[in-house]
Structure formats: C-alpha cells, structure tokens
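name: query_chain
kind: protein
chains: 1
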Amino acid sequence: MREERLWSGGPVLETHDGVFPLGTDSVLLADFCNAPKNGRVCDLGSGTGFLLLRLLWENPGLTGTAAEIEPAAAENSRVNLLRNGLSARGTVFAGDLRMLPGTEEYDLAVSNPPYFSKESPGRSPARKEMYLSVDELCASAYRLLKPGGRFCIVHRLERLPLLLGTMYLKKLFPSRLRYVRHRQGKPVKLVLLEGVKDCETEMLRLPDLIMCHLDGTYTQETKRIYRMEERA
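structure:
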C-alpha cells in the first residue's frame, strides 16, 4: 500500500496493492470539471476514489457516489472516503456502473475510463475497456444526469472522434474541449471534454493546457492544479 497527502492540510490518498494508481489525467479532470458547490456528483469507474475524494473535499456542499466494478478498487475508494471523514457525503457502489441505482439524480458525472478498446494489442487489461464501451459509458451518464447536467471525461486524443460522435448520439452535447500538452511544443496526447445533457450548444475550445515549459519546469497552471505551493 502507498499513501500520500495530496497537499499540506489536504486529504490523504491511499493506493492499495493491485489498484491502478493515481495519474495526471485524473488530477486534470478534477480541475476541469468545475464541480457545483452544491448538488450531486457520480464518478463512473472510480479506481482509488481520487476524483470523488477531491471534489467532495473542495466543495463542502457536494454529495456523491463512486461506482467501481473491481472489488479491490471499490474498497480502496471506500477507505479513502472514510479516512478523510467524507463517508457521510460520499458512498461507493461496488458493481457494474450500468446497474447504479437512480435516474436523473446527479448534476455532474465524471469519468477517467480505460483508454483502449479491449481488442488493442499489447495493453494490460487494466487499461482496456474490458467491462464497458464508450457507448455504454455515455448511455449510463445520460441516464444518471439531471436535464442540463454535465458529463466530464478525460481521454486520449485519438479517441476524440468516437467520443464526440457518441456524445452527440446520446444527447450529451459537447460544450467544452481542452487539449493537454505535457510539454510546450509537443503533440497533444490527452483531451478534456464536457457534454451537457439535452442542451445543444456551441462547443467552446479552451486554450491548450501546457503542463511544462520547454526546459521541463512546471507551468504556473500546473502548479495551481496540483496545489504545489501547498505541498507538505
């Protein structure tokens, strides 16, 4: 098991053996999604539970649910909520998120899903869509969200056409898009995308998020997102 305090005075994140560890993509998504101060959020495929943990920690009026099919990861999510005193506002659904109870109950749905199709060669099962396709993920988000609710997802650039097409078909109309570059001048690898349920609107292309300068030092925005000045 590994544990770390995310910043000075902030929550502690445990990562249990065999559970996919926290990555940059989840941290960026937590910042991108602009969680409501109040209302309900669901994390679709929670892993360690970081997304729900951070959103609840930073928004005291928020409540939510983490859905995770892998038993060890679901337990990891539950432990992190309990350890940080958030189990009264956050619950864990251990099972297939397509079976998560509720219809039109959430204001925000977030997901950092596996990036590769289950047919992709040379990828570990943890990084493949073994349980849920993009189509099924978007259908579940649509069912769970209130009208006008928002679905925020992080994914690889090459899956963006599929994401956009699927979200349109599921009436999660894309409203914000942001490309992520790990270093200035380098190719885009990740995309952050938001869709709004049943509300067709013009999609806003945000300025690219550049994580590092040419010399490899962190940009000011990366420092803000990671709250580096508050690190212990």
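note: The radius of gyration is 17 Å.
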